[in-house]
Amino acid sequence: MAPSFDHLRDEDLDEDDFDVDEVDISDIREKYEVQLEQGYDAFVVVDGLPEVTEEQKPKLVKFLLKKLNTVGKTREDLIFMPMGEDGKSMRFAFVEYSSPAEAAAACRQLDLVPLDKKHTLRVNKLTDVDRYGREGRIDDEYTPPQIEEFQEKEHLRSFMADPSGRGRDQFVMFRGETVGVFWNNEKDTPENIVDRQHWTETFVQWSPLGTYLTSVHAQGVQLWGGPSWTRQRRFAHPFVNLVAFSPNEKYLVTWSNRPISIPEEGHPALSLDTPAAATAEGDAPKKAPKFPWPAFKWSADDKYVARLNPGQSISVYELPRMNLLDKTAIKIEGVVDFDWAPATVQRDGVKTYEQLFCFWTPEIGSNPARVGLMSIPSKQVVRSLNLFSVSDAKLHWQSEGAYICVKVDRHSKSKKSQATTLEIFRVKEKGVPVEVVDTIKDTVINFAWEPKGDRFVIISTTEPVGATAVPPKTSVAFFCPEKAKGNAVGNFKHLRTLEKKNSNAIYWSPKGRFVVVATVANTQSSDLDFYDLDFEGEKPESDKDLTANLQLMNTADHYGVTDVEWDPSGRFVATWASAWKHSMENGYHLYDFKGEQLREEAIEKFKQFQWRPRPATLLSKEEQKAIRRNLREYSRIFEQEDAERISSADVAVVEARRHLLEEWFAWRESIVQEVAEEREIYGLPADPAAELIKAKTSELSTDGEEQVIEEIMEEVLEETEEIVQ
């Protein structure tokens, strides 16, 4: 923060920063100075200044000049600060820049910027003041504004109240040119809520708490919500490609592979450049860009956002003002990547809980690679770890920030072979101890923590990672802690490894316990394996001291599957084959958590399926524990409701069929009656079949005499064939 003007020292006003010279050079300046453009386009009005006397005025002008010259070029004699009749300044000033472009830049970059702790600048063009404040546009007499009658707005969280009372979740589907939102009806056809043609041009995306549905267009993005699905906000960004929300939905970042053009009148959003190497390819809008995305990463509380300057530093900004923390980036030589903790971690022995992020740097010269854990805003490195022979590293936070696993790919001295180690930081424990899981000789290609838990799954392969005609065989390994006394978490141990698999993706239930290990985007295989890590059956003797009991519940196959996603409740899993990836058998499947298929629907040009997220529960931990204790009682109520619903559905089907049958009988009766009336009109018999039988009978009998009917039959008894020469 800038020093307060009230306590400004003379040292803060370095005369070398200004063109102050006692020598009279007015003749030289008049001869060689570049003439300012005519008109008022180069003038701005700076408001929000402190009130000063005539003696204090030069000091304030020099202090203000430091800010003004950060966006353009001006001088002391081009700043006019009016004084009131009481001899004090009127708290605003007129400033002339060297060009209209600099004046426009000042309006964009200096408006709402703090001058000191007590004063915030407001910067506007002089032409705007003249345009909106000229005589005739402002009444001399004050007229109180007309307050519009309050209109109640739709509740943006109305989707949490399922009208059926069954606690269903919603999902969005993008197929062809149509986007629709539906209630999940398990085995039955989904209940459509809204269906719109051309709702988006590229893809749709839910905000993290499910409040908004984002549509993406050539002009920018739009946010939709409420029961009527009205547009809540729109943000202009030409040719936008990607969208990212902050965790609490307070901020939105958009990215385009084209340079953004900001008009002179300014833009309400912050615009920053990113590497120009990224391009959008094909019809799949979410193709991985060539630069890290999201470009900005958010702290769990939305108070900070950070940006990586590869190989140099990490810039952390305070929100909402977006000012650089302590006015300087955090210099970390060689930094490759970083990631914020997904929750505010309560560390043992620490009274003040700050936000944490983890970063890593490669080996530089004789210096080892390093992993660091930094606390923000204090910028204190709370834990660091040196690593050797490092080829690459990946950072994996557990959902509550209790652990972070650093997956380290190491090479041998000859660099011909490679192995992986898992360095697990126990963030909540005092001193942040680091546990090293046994070296894995194979290359780990996937890692996933159990949400809100302390178990994890990895997928590894013995073959080199890369594009191959036939994907390599993989191994799936499960890890969990040992049992420990009290609430302590024991050391991580290997639970089980499944060999010779084709799996390449891991999808945990958001509630933990259940996990789907899948093979996606693979033309050779499309396996789905459903596992339970807290199976209630008999536990093997070898696993008695471990905190997991692994059981394969079911296997499934979805040909051409490209994506897998759990619903927020952890009860259902959706898999789909997207037309963005291939055009074969596009559509979706729906499974329950046990792997039983509930529904399958093939849809031409099916592109996207996405469950609507839910905000965090409002129940306290005690209330959640009470629900778990009484779960059996609630289960009986739910089972009874399900049975009644199924029974009522069966009754409805029977009634509908009976109604159709009655309609058919009534129609048939009307037709029979209509035909009988027509026969009577034309003199035809009412029953033609009976009349025909009667006529035949009369032909066969002639006055009661018997008739002899002779039949001649010819039969061949023997036949021979002789060939004559």
Automatic annotation (TrEMBL):
Kindly give the InterPro entries that the UniProt entry links to this protein. Answer: EIF3B (IPR011400), eIF3B_RRM (IPR034363), Nucleotide-bd_a/b_plait_sf (IPR012677), RBD_domain_sf (IPR035979), RRM_dom (IPR000504), TIF_beta_prop-like (IPR013979), WD40/YVTN_repeat-like_dom_sf (IPR015943)
Question: GO cellular component annotations, sorted alphabetically?
Answer: eukaryotic 43S preinitiation complex; eukaryotic 48S preinitiation complex; eukaryotic translation initiation factor 3 complex
The answer to whether the entry has keyword RNA-binding is yes
Q: PROSITE patterns of this UniProt entry?
A: RRM (PS50102)
Q: Name one GO biological process term.
A: formation of cytoplasmic translation initiation complex
Domain RRM intervals: 42-128
Record's keyword terms, sorted: Cytoplasm, Initiation factor, Protein biosynthesis, RNA-binding, WD repeat
Q: Which GO terms describe its molecular function?
A: RNA binding; translation initiation factor activity; translation initiation factor binding
Query: Which branch of life, at top level?
Result: Eukaryota
Keyword Cytoplasm on this protein? yes
Location(s), subcellular: Cytoplasm
Q: Identify the Pfam families for this entry.
A: eIF2A
Quaternary structure (record): Component of the eukaryotic translation initiation factor 3 (eIF-3) complex.
- Please give the family membership noted in the entry: Belongs to the eIF-3 subunit B family.
In UniProt terms, what function does this protein have?
Component of the eukaryotic translation initiation factor 3 (eIF-3) complex, which is involved in protein synthesis and, together with other initiation factors, stimulates binding of mRNA and methionyl-tRNAi to the 40S ribosome. RNA-binding component of the eukaryotic translation initiation factor 3 (eIF-3) complex, which is involved in protein synthesis of a specialized repertoire of mRNAs and, together with other initiation factors, stimulates binding of mRNA and methionyl-tRNAi to the 40S ribosome. The eIF-3 complex specifically targets and initiates translation of a subset of mRNAs involved in cell proliferation.
Q: What name goes with this protein?
A: Eukaryotic translation initiation factor 3 subunit B
Tell me what gene encodes this.
PRT1
